[in-house]
Design a protein that fits this description.
39% strand; elongated; alpha+beta; Thiol Ester Dehydrase, Chain A; 139 residues; single chain
Amino acid sequence: MKTHSSTSVEIRFSDIDMAGHVHNSRYLSFFEQARIDFMGEMTGPEWNWRERGIVLGRNEIDYITPIYLNDKIYVITKCDHVGNKSFTLSYELFKINPDGDDQLCTKGRSILVCMDFKTDESQPLFDEWKNYLLASLEA
């Protein structure tokens, strides 16, 4: 069972700030795309997100080294904590270097809370997700 996802990210001109590197706010969008890919691999295309899904409880980012417009980057996403009603996804954003030794540029984490949107209440971790998330912890 695959327990992580890898997401290629395209840097756009509008992502760049006055200093010439990717603006700090854009990293949350990069992580969001990576989270969508991870969740899609875990749930498959038939999951009804309007009934049972997640809300974002917390984001954190550690900026290690800047990235620039022409950099080629990707994000590795995996689960690093499983609780009763929530789980934590971790992100590592890498820059692809020509020498083949990819450079870690940014790390982040998101705490996600399982929700029943019909009742608008948090729910215990969905059984359908548990094995995938627990396997990701061990990877």
